[in-house]
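In this supplementary section we document a worked example of the pipeline. Step one takes a protein sequence of length 344 as its only input; no multiple sequence alignment statistics are reported here. Step two produces a three-dimensional model, which step three serialises into structure tokens for compact storage. The input and output of this example are shown verbatim.
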Amino acid sequence: MTADGVRWGILATGGIAAAFTADLVDLPDAEVVAVASRSAESAQAFAERFGIERAYGDWRSLAEDGDVDVVYVATPHAAHRAAAGLCLEAGRHVLCEKPFTLNVREAGELVALARQHGRFLMEAMWMYCNPLIRRLKDLVDDGAIGEVRTVQADFGLAGPFPPAHRLRDPRQGGGALLDLGVYPVSFAQLLLGEPSDVTARAVLSPEGIDLQTAALLSWDSGALAAVHCSIVGGTGVTASVTGSAGRIDIPDGFFHPDRFVLHRDGKDPEEFAADPADGPRTTLRHEAREVMRALRAGETESPLVPLDGTLAVMRTLDAIRGRVGVRYPSEAGDLTGEAALTPA
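The serialised model returned by step three reads:
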């Protein structure tokens, strides 16, 4: 880090990398100094688009660039283990896109690498860094709706996606669950922690990925969460949390809300709206700011997106895939999702 700010490297040049970089360049204490892709032409075009000084046609050159403080890994998730691991081993801090990895085994390997090398590591679960989601969690933790009884959340896209699309490709970790279902699961676990039991059903494609999945998560407290994801039907992308004394509804786009409504027994509904000063609901700046805050504080993980929480979510995703029978080609030797859940 320099007196002027934190120096970022961007690994991959797709749509999410572009969105994140566009938000980064607007932050006065962030400097994007390098970008890497497996294609030198793609890296150069990305560098020219955002005014980035260095463009690499391979990942290793970025990982070994001593002028880079932290790397944002934005590859498809099947490559997260390799890309983030390379950067951690080279001494870089890492912000890795969601889903963190294909499975909890890979996730555990990255966490172990980060702890071994004393590097910062965080999943880019921007929902957890969203100010309005943080406000909702504070209300729930403070007992605004009593004891949580149920959580409901859904995320579905209408599609259709052709078989060659990454969402249908098993080699790229395709399917609704990892790409979309990670949000409903993460939302439920933000409020309730890791479930004690998981049941699930899915509709599978001819390629063996899940086209839509529904899961019921349960906790020893008696709380339940019903989560659903789909790449064959557009849903409302809503969420609701019901407690013994009230309810909170997020009417749309629950993972990046612009408002939610608190219903307390015996009181008028109360709406909480996003602060316009926080930027558009699609902004990724909140997670970038959290990374930079943690780096300046000398922290190796974020209290907002703790690594143990990321591992717990990955265990649940593994369990759901184990129940519905989705296994990726690279997992031939893994018992993905088939072991009993182990609370964090």
